[in-house]
Amino acid sequence: xxxxxxxxxxxxxxxxxxxxxxxxxxxxxxxxxxxxxxxxxxxxxxxxxxxxxxxxxxxxxxxxxxxxxxxxxxxxxxxxxxxxxxxxxxxxxxxxxxxxxxxxxxxxxxxxxxxxxxxxxxxxxxxxxxxxxxxxxxxxxxxxxxxxxxxxxxxxxxxxxxxxxxxxxxxxxxxxxxxxxxxxxxxxxxxxxxxxxxxxxxxxxxxxxxxxxxxxxxxxxxxxxxxxxxxxxxxxxxxxxxxxxxxxxxxxxxxxxxxxxxxxxxxxxxxxxxxxxxxxxxxxxxxxxxxxxxxxxxxxxxxxxxx
Amino acid sequence: xxxxxxxxxxxxxxxxxxxxxxxxxxxxxxxxxxxxxxxxxxxxxxxxxxxxxxxxxxxxxxxxxxxxxxxxxxxxxxxxxxxxxxxxxxxxxxxxxxxxxxxxxxxxxxxxxxxxxxxxxxxxxxxxxxxxxxxxxxxxxxxxxxxxxxxxxxxxxxxxxxxxxxxxxxxxxxxxxxxxxxxxxxxxxxxxxxxxxxxxxxxxxxxxxxxxxxxxxxxxxxxxxxxxxxxxxxxxxxxxxxxxxxxxxxxxxxxxxxxxxxxxxxxxxxxxxxxxxxxxxxx
Lengths: 307, 283
Hints:
The complex is a heterodimer.
Chain A: H1 6-42, E1 45-48, E2 51-55, H2 59-65, H3 68-99, H4 106-114, H5 121-131, H6 138-145, H7 157-169, H8 173-184, H9 188-196, H10 201-229, H11 233-238, H12 259-269, H13 273-301
Antiparallel strand pairs in A: 1-2
Chain B: H1 11-42, H2 46-49, H3 64-72, H4 75-106, H5 112-124, H6 127-140, H7 148-155, H8 159-169, H9 174-182, H10 187-198, H11 200-216, H12 219-224, H13 233-243, H14 248-268, H15 270-278
Helix pairs in contact in B: 1-14, 3-14, 4-7, 4-8, 4-11, 5-8, 9-10, 11-15, 13-14
């Protein structure tokens, strides 16, 4: 047996730890650390695929201020997020309560609710183009039978943005299942006590369910917010114009131009990679700012029990 | 339906239960209905497809759309490409992520906590930030228009899966590992013969998620692959719309064929999916 002096033992432990972690240490350096630094530098440079970066200070950031398309893409993305996240949370809570009604076939209902989340986004985009088709689509047909308005989803600027949210809502099942699991963790005694006090269903939801699942709500709002701010594929597919090789607008009146689509266009269509990098940093800063704001607000509305 | 579990179930309880089934069936229908439209449209002749008002059920069933999808698209090549990338990515995840997770969960070394925080921080980072430098790197190495940029990252460990497997391993009692050490097992033996078998549920969860993510991924293949021979189903189907106008029948048939493998994996690995989602970590 080897003589294990403390120094040698620690050295060996360090070596083992690093050896097992080495894939990600390399991965972190190559796929995160260096790219973050490089992206920061690119954002301060005039740079395309064909010419080396040239330092231009904050010029890329200044140009954003006067770039109408930049503001349009930011507005659209905040629209998707500000409508999508609350609707997602609300629908998920409603669905989770239905799933929680102690019915038979739980596994089947959960699977069906989650099914759309595994449909490839490109296939989902095409399918919804068809469903939202104003002549042959089922969505307007159902609206007609319910005497609701039948908007021109894919032709009207306002409804174009809403169509993106509708398509994203098809994958609400993931959040629903998370809430379903959270509801099962709420102690049953709490409801029984409230029932004895004669509290209504709505009262029980407000006084018991909502505070008890609020940590889950906070986490889901953050996760969904991050995902919605990065939306790309669904509007990209919904807005593709089959007749044109190069499109002038992304959706009617650019209503589907998400931040990530505009960033992608700058990087890979216009080859303005410095400008695209600056946009990426703005996205990071916006994401961080909203996350910190939500965490700060948590003190006021998130209930952490007796911990 | 076995509603009355006890003979004395009150009428109100029975009614409530019935109401519950109405609601849950309605809920499931909202999610599944678009899916049914995709399926039935794929089997319709064009006079059925272009009927206003739309009819859900075809008057005439046909397989022509599938035949068209398979001949007008290099479908089998796209499928083969997608399978190759998905299988290699799953392999990469199964090789790399548990190694890192084991180091973070069960080995004691200075810097371990720092690395764990790093893993968590990278999960929060918008991929847009690293997108362009990583593209420039692969471009500089002459690796664009190959599968290398799509597959290599999985072999360097994916933060989400490292986290998932680490959370699983941390619940494994240390005694199991200590006992093997007492018996003189080497670290690699312990990892291979004890840790990996224990971690199986977390590994299966990671594998099914990695498969479906790679299968459905659009942005990365769109950026890195620029000729038809290399396209995955996502990119191939996307470009199909432009080249041929909108042929809804064949397009929906192609979408069905594209979605089917993901659905099969989902059905097989269903409890791992639902478990992974309910663990609160997905998305």
